[in-house]
């Protein structure tokens, strides 16, 4: 890969991109060559079709604007993030921006003015009489492919577009007391519009967006199902290459799932957790540098993010050799009972806290049956104690959508301390974790980590498990693993 040319050096929005002086491996650009490159190009048009979901985006924008009448709202997509030196991570747009526009490209900024005057500021195509198209490795079309014109983008997303170069003047003119910015995505925007007062006005915008995203519309539910279906295929792919009688690396399994995620979706929605044996007891084990061992369990927490950035979040724990030992099965059954109990209470109006307590009580009872709890179940469950949490470690689940931990800025009274409503999608993911060094549990439990996680849609009368394509009971898991192994390895098609 090369380095950007003089066009980028002039660009005031290039913060976070490589500086001049790192062009060590690029050839020179003699003037004759530069002039030659600017000539002789035929124009092409891009065939764009309006996105069918565009009317939904317009409705969402109207809903946000209605909360802040007479104000201007600025919501950036975000910028490429440096991975190392002059290479960036693949770009993934900010979730609120995607939810309001459907835009996938970096640097875009949505400005919503009073009266439904919504404009998406984007970087237009570079003309061929400048050097950008062949010298700019971040935006040049000979580096990254054909970009949209303003008109093409507008036709595709169903929103007015304007040149990003005109944005600074627009931001300069905004009245601070009548403007709110979604901060933390675009340093240039954050600097151009200083927060008014204590920043509370901007925080209100962030939590409003999160709260409006709590209920998923039909199109979003279809997107989540799409991500979950790809995730089911990914778990199957992994089961098909997981040997019963010899060891393989956690990285191999992570890679097989990652192939499915890239092939069928955009990517994984979060770093895959592939925990063999005692690694299963480490909640966010993403080093994935261990190996499976026949006789041990394997915990896999993995989700495909689909092409529109909605993500699944699913966990399965399987016995590597194909059969749970009696003790593994006993612990597994406790976790399954807890998850089922949680799913069974979910319906509109039920409090998040009650779902949590339902799952945790079953786990605490199971811990008592295992002889692990040092106090009674009731005492362990009391607010002053919660001793059972030494082995349960986390909550029952979380909202799911464009983000794996969706709607994270919602106010606590409307989320953690509130209740679920029809159209919410959430995970139910209790687990039990016995650390290898835990001297308060019998030796045979040490190093066992089990979680079962599914993605559940709250319906008018209850809950629908969107990830029912994967097995959940211990018997089903054994039969599924055997069937996948019987079918043999496969590549995505
Ligand atoms: N799946 C990872 C998490 O929920 O934290
Ligand atoms: Mn989760």
TrEMBL record:
One of its GO terms (cellular component) is cytosol. It catalyses: Release of any N-terminal amino acid, including proline, that is linked to proline, even from a dipeptide or tripeptide. Pfam families: AMP_N, Peptidase_M24. Its EC number is 3.4.11.9. Residues 54-190 form the Aminopeptidase P N-terminal domain. One of its GO terms (molecular function) is manganese ion binding. It is an enzyme of class 3 (hydrolase). Residues 1-13 have a biased composition (Basic and acidic residues). Residues 1-30 are annotated as: Disordered. GO terms for biological process: proteolysis. Coiled coil: none annotated. Keywords: Aminopeptidase, Hydrolase, Manganese, Metal-binding, Protease. Its cofactor is Mn(2+). InterPro entries: Aminopep_P_N (IPR007865), Creatin/AminoP/Spt16_N (IPR029149), Creatinase/aminopeptidase-like (IPR036005), Pept_M24 (IPR000994), X-Pro_dipept-like (IPR052433). Belongs to the peptidase M24B family. PANTHER family: XAA-PRO AMINOPEPTIDASE 3. This is Xaa-Pro aminopeptidase. It comes from Planosporangium flavigriseum.
């Amino acid at each position: 890969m090369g380095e950007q040319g003089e066009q980028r050096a002039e660009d005031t929005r290039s913060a976070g991109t490589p500086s001049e002086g790192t062009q060590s491996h690029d050839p020179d650009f003699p003037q004759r060559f530069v002039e030659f490159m600017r000539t002789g190009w035929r124009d092409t048009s891009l065939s764009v079709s309006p996105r069918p979901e565009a009317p939904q985006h317009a409705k969402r924008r109207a809903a946000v604007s209605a909360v802040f009448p007479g104000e201007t709202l600025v919501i950036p997509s975000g910028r490429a993030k440096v991975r190392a030196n002059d290479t960036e991570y693949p770009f993934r747009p900010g979730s609120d921006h995607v939810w309001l526009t459907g835009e996938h490209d970096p640097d875009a900024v949505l400005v919503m003015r009073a009266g439904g005057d919504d404009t998406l500021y984007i970087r237009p195509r570079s003309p061929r009489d400048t050097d950008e198209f062949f010298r700019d490795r971040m935006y040049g079309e000979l580096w990254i492919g054909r970009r949209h014109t303003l008109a093409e983008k507008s036709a595709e997303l169903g929103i007015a577009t304007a040149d990003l170069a005109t944005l600074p003047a627009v931001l300069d003119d905004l009245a601070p007391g009548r403007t709110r910015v979604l901060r933390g995505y675009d340093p240039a925007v954050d600097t151009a519009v200083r927060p008014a007062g204590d920043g509370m006005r901007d925080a209100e915008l962030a939590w409003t967006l999160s709260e409006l995203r709590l209920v998923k519309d039909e199109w979003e539910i279809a997107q989540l199902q799409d991500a979950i279906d790809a995730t089911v295929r990914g778990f199957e792919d992994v089961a098909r290459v997981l040997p019963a009688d010899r060891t393989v690396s956690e990285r191999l399994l992570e890679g097989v799932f990652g192939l499915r995620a890239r092939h069928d979706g955009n990517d994984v929605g979060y770093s895959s957790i592939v925990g063999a044996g005692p690694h299963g007891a480490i909640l966010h084990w993403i080093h994935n540098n261990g190996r499976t061992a026949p006789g041990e369990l394997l915990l896999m927490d993995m989700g495909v993010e689909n092409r529109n950035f909605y993500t699944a979040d699913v966990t399965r724990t399987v016995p590597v050799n194909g059969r749970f030992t009696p003790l593994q099965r006993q612990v597994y059954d406790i976790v399954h009972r807890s998850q089922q109990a949680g799913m069974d209470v979910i319906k509109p109006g039920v409090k998040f806290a009650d779902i949590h307590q339902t799952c945790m009580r079953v786990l605490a009872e199971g811990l008592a049956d295992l002889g692990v709890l040092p106090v009674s179940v009731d005492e362990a469950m009391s607010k002053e104690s919660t001793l059972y949490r030494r082995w349960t470690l986390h909550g029952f689940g979380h909202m799911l959508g464009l983000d794996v931990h969706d709607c994270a800025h919602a106010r606590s009274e409307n989320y953690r301390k509130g209740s679920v409503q029809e159209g919410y999608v959430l995970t139910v993911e209790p687990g039990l974790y016995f650390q290898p060094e835990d001297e308060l549990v019998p030796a045979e439990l040490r190093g066992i980590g089990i979680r079962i996680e599914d993605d559940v849609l709250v319906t008018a009368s209850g809950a629908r498990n969107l990830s029912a394509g994967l097995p959940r009971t211990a018997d089903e898991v054994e039969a599924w693993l055997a069937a996948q192994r019987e079918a043999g390895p496969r590549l995505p098609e």
